[in-house]
Amino acid sequence: MNLLLLHATMLLWALSPSMQNYCDKSSETSKLNLSVTYELPTFTADFPIQNMVTLDGIIYVGAVNRIYALAPNLTKLSEYHTGPLLAHQACGLTQTTTGGASGVDNHNIALVVENIYDKGLYSCGSADNGVCRRHVLDDGNSLKAIDEDVYCFADKVQPGQGHPIDADVVVSPSGSQVLNVESNVITFFVGNSEIPKAGNISGSIMRLHTISQRKMKTSQNGFTFFSSLSHMDLIPSLQGNYYLRYVYSFHSGPFTYFLTVQQVNKDTQAYHTRIVRMCSSDLVIRRYVEMPLECISTNKRRRRATEEVKVFNILQAAHVTKVGNDAELQRQLKAEEDEDVLFAAFAQGQPGSPEPTPNSAVCVMSLKHINNMFKMYMQRCNTIDPYHFTGSERKSCYNMTSSDDCDPHEGIHEGKEGMYRLQVTQFVQRLEFWHKDLKNTLVTSITVVPVNGRTVAYLGTADGRHIQVLFSRFTSPHVNIGLDSSPVSASVVLPDTPHSEGAVLMATGSKITKIPLIGPGCGQLTTCTSCLLSSKVTQCGWCDGRCTRRPQCPSTSSWSQDNCTPVITKVFPSSGPIRGSTAVTICGRNFGFDKTENFKTSMVNVEVAGAQCKLARQDNVNRWTEMQCSPSFSGNFTPSGHLVKVTSGHAVAKLEGFKFVDPVINNIFPTFGPKSGNTMLTIRGAFLDTGNKQVVTVGKASCKIQSLSFSMLICKTPPHTHAVPSEQPVKLTVDSVERQAPVPFTYNEDPVISSIQPLRSFVSGGCTVSAQGSYLQSGLQPQMVLRTAQDTAVFHVSCVYGENRTSIQCTTPSLAKLPLQPPVVTKVAFVLDGYLTDQKDLIYVEDPLFQDPKLTSKDNKSIVELKGDRMDREAMKCQVLTVSNHSCESLTVVGNTLECTVPTQLQAATAKELQVEWRQADSIRHLGKVTLAQEQDYTGLIVGCVCVSLLLLFLASLLMWRRNKHIDDLSEVWYDGRGHIQHLDRLANARSVSPTNEMVSHESVDYRTTLLEDQGVDRPETCRAAPPMYRANGELLSPRLGTLGGGLGLGMEGDLVSPLLMAPVHIDPSCLHPDLLTEVQHVVIAREQLLLHVNQIIGRGQ
Fold first, then answer.
1. What is the structure's pLDDT at 986?
2. Which pLDDT score, from 0 to 100, does residue 371 have?
3. Quick one: 594 and 741 in the same domain?
4. pLDDT at site 1073
5. How far is 388 from 238, CA to CA, in rounded Å?
6. SS3 assignment for 424-479
7. What one-character-per-residue DSSP string does 594-606 give?
8. pLDDT > 70 in the chain, percent
9. Listed residue (870, 931, 938) closest to 906, CA to CA
10. Parallel/antiparallel/unpaired status of strands 794-798 and 782-787
11. What domain count does the chain have?
């Protein structure tokens, strides 16, 4: 039980720090009210929307079977039908009737505007066999509707007729990225995706180039390649078998870039993201290089090899913008205002698949940094041939000095023209932003816009939500609203309006929603901090405990964008030692907050329990919500209360939560243990759990803490390598304050087990095993560990010490439930305070089979006999047989008979029925009952005999008295035979024929009275008796009693005057009447012939 309690205490102590000593990381600054909704402008199309672009304020929307032109307020200006088509053919005819065969839907693959020759729009559909249509929007004379001037942009191809040439086949039904770049000429860069086993939407049988660049013919009726080197294709063996998806394309500086998701190599099903770079000025694919990109997340911003790294490998969407005048973005990226920055939304991919999981992160990197990485890896020759284009994986180097400006004469000075097609073998990794806010979220679109000097990211998700968040390591989204149930499209449009008044257009399914760049409102922001952090963008402020814009705040209330009142929610630890180095952590919100992402230390002053608390440096912690400080002591410091006070600016927050205490050690237990250590040392005292860090040492070695509370600390002693016995001081150090125990801890020799008895146990267990050895007193909590063969079962049994701690007593466990056949050899070892002794053999044998017990007697002792089979003499020493819960006084085995001597205390017990039991490890088996024979008790007989003897003695005395009295009465009588013979006859008649009967008159006449009446006056004086005495009622009394009564002063009425037996008196025979003597002479016995029995009663009397 003690071990269970100890383990429970240790578990609670282990869990409690993790449950209490931390600040809530889900800071209130990030809490949004997601139930708030807003009314926003929308446009709903007839079919799902796939692409959007804008030109001169007009929004052009590419949808399935439709092209729309919308005004800035989302009013439809015109539309053009691109399908359904009658058949799969270049620029096929649109089906205009509802009858007949069903048409083919025309998905919008690409929507591109150009503003060089005249303003035009290229719409490329999946059912047009890769050919695009050109919409003339403005020919210089007037603006035209989207459906007013449209033609098939393929030479010699009329609607539904003719076959396009190679250069006119632009897009792939699997998806394409088309980008027109103005350099020396307008170049169209095209990347066509390759998706294995994907359905062919258009049914096109033409083979498309994987990546290419082309220009528009001067006749404006089609495209043409610059040369045969203006395109590259997957090698034939990979076509249809290699995953390659073009996700995003953009132009920056002298380069054109594509972002792809593709297989890591031809032999694996792992996928990652790559960035492809080409020179925009090259008319052929002359300088081509691609490099893997990864977005990673770590628990700390500074990565270490031992930390878990989360990799987000599947790109979902991207956007390129200028750094602008956002100081935070400039600081984070170390970039200048006019540099381009890539914002890329990644997701963690499913194992062995390019499909994403709903777990996203956004990585931000400057293009300058990316180009530097290209240059470094190329110069280090960390490059190979791109196998998917070349069929080779050989290492390939390009060591020419590159100016990174796509100089058309690059390489000429080195004697050859600069040309390379390379794949970088190293990854470019960037740390993520906002991952904690994007858990369980799949980001599908991203657009980044500077608003009022701050960079804001506008995200769309797969569940149709829109998120706005400031660029910062410490901010969280300030907008998170639902737009629709359909995923947000990766195509996002920013209308050409001032950003402070602008909006972002997001498509979800068939709907377009217009969302203000400053946010739809302030209602989702529930705290002052979150309200003011985004106030520069959202134009929100704090008013009456809620976030509003100024017009919504009552004129009688205060509307502020400047500061928030600090709040303390938690302080830990709750106490610390006086003059210690305890670091106090304060949780709350609005600490040092002044509307920036920086914590203003100068604004904050902290005081704990009357002591000034110096703020510590904290990296990667949001100190608006969590501060750490160390109390500073000066002079004779005196603690003052429990108050924690934080002053932030002019506002003050207070909370009762910390006090200074004086930890003390009262005692330790045990005070000794084996030199191998592992003794559970208990330290008792007060304030032992104060502070942040507790360290216990025994001597100079650390005692590992197992559990900790206010008044008790348990630690495991370290080993001692020096001579023993050895006394070592026990010390507790709490945040640099040291306390020493009043007594030392003594190391003793390690225990040694020399033997165990008995050497056998029954399979059912319950056997008491006694372990003998030396230095057993070194431990305090003995245990027995029993193992079966191959450790198929291991048992831990708590034990106790024998008398004087010279042995260890343990009870064997049961093996009855294990699939083992006796005899079973087990190994037992003993653990004393963590020290494990050598193993001993203990053999388990079969349980005996008993018959009913019988009781016999031997040498004046009661013996319980049990006959049976499998009587193992050694195992019988286990003391498993009990009689009425008492162990046998002695236990012997004679043949197949077990003899148990009944304990002496049961012999004298009042209960004579004894229960014979077989004690097993898990149960008690009742063998039967025996009845103890009754011992002879002579007490009653003796008492009875004594009482009878006393009664007989009393009766004998009474009889003797009456007989004596009768004789006395006769001795007093003289008889005158002359006239009174009849009295003798009466006397004779009164005698009973039985010699044992008392002489009583048949007429109930007292003979004494009769005789006395006949006494004469002239009798001799010597023979004359005393005068007769009578009661008051006339009853004659004995003269002796009369005299006695008179002598006692009782008189004639005394209670003692009664006819009792007379005492013996002398009778003179000469005084007797001669006739009387003659009458009784035959019954009178001479004195010398009289036998007197003084100790035996003969006859009876009454």
1. 43
2. 93
3. no
4. 65
5. 7
6. ECCCEEEEEECHHHCCCCCEEEEEEEEECCEEEEEEEECCCEEEEEECCCCCCCCE
7. SSSSS--GGGEEE
8. 78
9. 931
10. antiparallel
11. 6
Q: pTM for the whole thing?
A: 0.63
Give the pairing of strands 745-748 and 672-674.
Answer: parallel
- Domain of 744, CATH number, reads 2.60.40.10
201 in Cβ contact with 84 (< 8 Å):
no
Which of 272-286, 703-717, 721-735, 848-862 is predicted least confidently? 848-862
> What residues contact 604, with CB distance under 8 A and at least 6 apart?
591, 592, 615, 627, 646, 647, 648
Q: What percent of the chain has pLDDT over 90?
A: 42
Same domain, 71 and 197: yes
494-521: average pLDDT = 88
pLDDT for residue 956 is more than 70:
yes
| Long-range Cβ contacts of 977-983 (<8 Å, 24+ apart) | 977/1073, 977/1074, 977/1075, 977/1076, 980/1014, 981/1075, 983/1007, 983/1010, 983/1011, 983/1014
Residue 964 · residue 1063 · CB < 8 Å: yes
Burial class (CB in 10 A: 0-12, 13-18, 19+), 751: buried
**pLDDT: is 592 or 462 the higher one?**
462
Rounded to an integer, what distance in angstroms lies between the CA atom of residue 353 and that of residue 305? 26
In a shared domain, residues 338 and 355: yes
In this structure, of 455-469, 766-780, 832-846, 1002-1016, the range with the lowest mean pLDDT score is 1002-1016
Pairing of strands 287-298, 420-424: parallel
The pLDDT of residue 1013 is 45
Instruction: For residue 630, list its beta bridge partners.
Output: 614
Residue 670: asked if its preceding bond is cis (omega within 30°), the reply is yes
DSSP lists the bridge partners of residue 255 as 252, 279
For the chain, what percentages of helix, strand and coil (3-state, to nearest 5) are there? 15, 40, 45
Is the Cα torsion angle 1058, 1061, 1063, 1065 positive or negative in sign?
positive
Q: Domain of residue 601: give its range.
A: 567-660
Between 980 and 109, the higher pLDDT residue: 109
Classified as helix, coil or strand, 742 is coil
Q: Which residue has the tokens 């006086």?
A: 578
Q: Give the pLDDT confidence of 463-495 residue by residue, as tens digits.
A: 999 999 999 877 889 999 999 999 999 999 998
What is the residue-averaged pLDDT of the chain?
A: 81
> Which one-letter amino acid corresponds to residue 192?
N
Looking at the structure, do residues 424 and 542 belong to the same domain, yes or no?
Answer: no
Q: Which of 933, 955, 981 is the last residue of a domain?
A: 933
Is residue 429 domain-shared with residue 491, that is, in the same domain?
Answer: no
The type of residue at 256 is T
CB-based contacts of 66, cutoff 8 Å, min separation 6: 45, 46, 47, 79, 80, 81, 82
* Lowest-pLDDT range of 130-134, 877-881, 945-949, 951-955: 877-881
**Burial (CB count <10 Å: 0-12, 13-18, 19+), residue 913:** exposed
Q: How far apart are CA 553 and CA 548, in angstroms?
A: 6
821 has a pLDDT exceeding 50: yes
How is residue 803 annotated by DSSP?
G
Shared domain check, 576 and 556? no
Q: Identify residue 289 by its one-letter amino acid code.
A: V
The whole-angstrom separation of Cα 635 and Cα 798 is 54
Q: What is the rounded CA–CA span in Å between residue 915 and residue 930?
A: 7
Amino acid letter, residue 459: L
Measure the CA–CA gap between 173 and 177, rounded to whole angstroms. 11
Contact 695, 796 (CB under 8 A): no
Neighbours of 152 (CB within 10 A): 24
Express each pLDDT in 80-91 by its tens digit: 999 898 776 677
Q: Which helix (H) or strand (E) holds 948?
A: helix 939-971
